[in-house]
Write a structure and sequence with these properties.
- The chain is built from five helices and four strands.
- By secondary structure, it is of the alpha+beta class.
- The chain folds into two domains: 64 residues; 53 residues, no CATH class.
- A four-stranded antiparallel beta sheet has the order 1-2-3-4, covered by helices on one side.
- A hairpin with a 2-residue loop joins strand 1 and strand 2.
- The longest helix has 36 residues.
């Protein structure tokens, strides 16, 4: 039992050293090592949340300046992305290519052309595929 306890403490010391960048004092016991490791991890999670909040604030500010900002961002879909839309109980999948959009093994210049083909009526491609209101 003591061997397991000693091994666990050495494991905690190694983990602590990895996180904090230096070995802990020998005077620090197992309980304090564990609490310190838990604190470090919570602090890191908090930093990630703060970063997300900051990025969200930036998006909100941009949107307030230009309500079309988020729509314009959607136009920059990267090649390889898939756009999926369900229409009248059937799923439709479009592959974004560098030179257009691939749908049913054909290349189209715009999403609107594909939306029109799917629905049989005039649609904004971005609206039909949910990329803007």
């Amino acid at each position: 039992m003591k061997k397991d306890s000693k091994l666990e403490e050495e494991n905690l010391r190694a983990q602590w050293a990895k996180l904090w960048g230096k070995p802990p004092s020998r005077a620090v016991g197992r309980t304090l090592l564990q609490k310190s490791i838990d604190y470090y991890k919570r602090r890191q999670e908090s930093d990630v949340i703060k970063q997300w909040e900051h990025e969200l604030d930036l998006l909100v500010r941009e949107y307030k300046r230009n309500p079309k900002y988020l729509d314009e961002k959607c136009e920059n879909l990267k090649p390889g992305a898939r756009i999926v839309r369900e229409w009248n109980g059937k799923k439709y999948c479009v592959l974004v290519k560098a030179d257009g959009f691939e749908y049913q093994d054909r290349l189209y210049r715009s999403l609107s052309q594909i939306a029109n083909e799917i629905t049989g009526s005039h649609w904004s491609g971005q609206a039909f595929f949910g990329l803007r209101d």
